[in-house]
Specification:
It contains 17 helices and 15 strands. The protein is an alpha/beta fold and 452 residues long. The chain folds into two domains: 31-64 and 341-449, Aspartate Aminotransferase, domain 1 (Alpha-Beta Complex); 67-339, Type I PLP-dependent aspartate aminotransferase-like (Major domain) (Aspartate Aminotransferase, domain 2, 3-Layer(aba) Sandwich). Its EC number is 2.6.1.-.
Length: 452
């Protein structure tokens, strides 16, 4: 094996990291993660790190699950790979589809498998347009997303997402993607009651539909809780009103459950937590707890009936759509979440405990808001509470706070100036105490170092 210095040198020489500031990486070098167990990672120096982000919001069942290794080995021995093209199927893909239909809200009765959340959302774009073409309304092409929504990194998923800087790279934006503001009360409605703000924020969708022309709008997409875009928890009434507006105009409602799915918000899906009845839902991450890449599009009867009855063939698919080994691991992962009651635990016990502990940070001078649901929480930093002013340039202070946490061996992410936590669902109370105490100390450090 190599020394840390050797790993770093090789990494710097050859890897183009995703979502990484190359200059900062070159200056500091990467931290080499070599193994993991439970909620902990170990780096190449043997230092233990508490993973408060479950990787990238995905290792819901925690690391070191022997059952998942065994499930993969069994499936690879029997049938490592086959596909779902041209009228073939495999038992793990059939069983997983059945299980997902059972767990997701009623009416989502069909599944299209992909390898990543990005591909799932990209698939949705083609599927939705194909649906409207088959319904003889091909002019319904526009998909409305939200500012700071994140739906992935393919060209089309980036266009559908609302990440400003991201959308300016790589020849984007594409036509026929529009965006409304996300329901961020701290920014857009601090003086409104949550209920009034919820109604107002949903009203932005109605305004956009009127501006675009209702006959041109194909779908609206949103994450039940916006994750990478700042941990935006919807205000009361928001989703009910969005649902009503979509129904009123016959617009398809798509829930991106890539982060919120598989227990993250205390129910199996964020759609259940917020009472959303989507026509289409995308899943990834927690579907396999990140052990293998797999994602899925859950398709409701309205769309699947048209695709099947009128369509003939949806000319779309990936070599690894429904990869049997990934499906076998996902099935076993779901069975772990069920067996250990992890979803109920998030809702009834450990989620409320995390929020209660974070509430204790509310009086810190840097803390503008504490928000979250289940094991998905954000602490937004603010420059001046009385003046309600934010940091500029945005993200610098959050990044510093994140780096303090990481040097103290706790992974907490900064999305701009919001400190974000989404630990594995197996995290204990003691481990939450450690995570929140580390954040508290990092906030103190960050506060001390602020330029006056
Ligand atoms: N949708 C949401 C809400 C996400 O958070 C992500 C990834 O973070 C994606 C889609 C993209 O998924 P993937 O990275 O698997 O392509």
């Amino acid at each position: 094996t190599r020394s840390t210095a050797e790993w770093r040198a090789l990494d710097a020489a050859h890897a183009l990291h995703p979502f990484t500031d190359y200059k900062a990486l070159a200056a500091e070098g990467s931290r080499i993660i070599t193994r993991a167990d439970g909620v902990y990672l170990w780096d190449s120096e043997g230092t233990r790190i508490l993973d408060g982000m479950a990787g990238l919001w995905c290792v819901n069942a925690g690391y070191g699950r022997r059952e998942l290794v065994d499930a993969a080995a069994r499936q690879m021995t029997a049938l490592p790979y086959y596909n779902l093209f041209f009228k073939t199927a495999t038992p793990p893909a059939i069983e997983l589809a059945r299980k997902l239909v059972e767990l997701t809200p009623a009416g989502l009765n069909h599944v299209f498998f992909t390898n990543s959340g990005s591909e799932a959302n990209d698939t949705v774009i083609r599927m939705v347009r194909q649906y409207w073409a088959l319904e003889d309304q091909p002019e319904r092409r526009v998909i409305i997303g939200r500012h700071n929504g994140y739906h992935g990194s393919t060209v089309a998923a980036t266009a559908m997402g609302g990440m400003g800087a991201m959308r300016r790279q790589g020849g984007l934006p594409l036509p026929d993607f529009e965006h409304i503001r996300e329901p961020n009360r701290l920014r857009y409605g601090p003086d409104q009651s949550p209920e009034d703000f919820g109604r107002a924020a949903a009203g932005w969708l109605e305004e956009a539909i009127q501006a675009i022309g209702p006959g041109r709008v194909a779908a609206f997409i949103g994450e039940p809780i916006q994750g990478a875009g700042g941990l935006i928890v919807p205000p009361p009434g928001y989703w009910a009103e969005i649902q009503r507006i979509c129904a009123n105009h016959g617009i398809l409602l798509i829930a991106d459950e890539v982060i919120c799915g598989f227990g993250r918000t205390g129910r199996w899906f964020g759609s259940q937590t917020f009472d959303i009845r989507p026509d289409i839902m995308t899943l990834a991450k927690g579907l396999s707890s990140g052990y293998l890449p797999i994602a899925a599009v859950m398709v409701g009867d309205r769309v699947s009936r048209t695709l099947i009855d009128k369509g003939g063939e949806f000319i779309h698919g990936f070599t690894y759509s429904g990869h049997p080994t990934a499906c076998a691991v996902a099935l076993e992962n779901i069975s772990i979440l069920e067996r250990e009651g992890l979803v109920d635990r998030v809702r009834e016990d450990i989620g409320p405990f995390l929020m209660e502990r974070l509430e204790g940070l509310r009086d810190h001078p840097l803390v503008g808001e504490v928000r979250g649901k289940g094991l998905m929480a954000g602490v937004e930093l603010i420059r001046d509470k009385d003046q309600h002013s934010f940091f500029a340039p945005v993200g610098r202070v959050g990044t510093r706070c994140r780096d303090h946490c990481f040097s103290n061996n706790v992974v907490i992410r900064a999305v701009e100036d919001t400190m974000v936590m989404a630990p594995p669902l197996i995290i204990t109370r003691d481990q939450i105490e450690t995570m929140v105490d580390t954040l508290a100390r990092a906030l103190d450090r960050t506060q001390r170092d602020l330029p006056r």
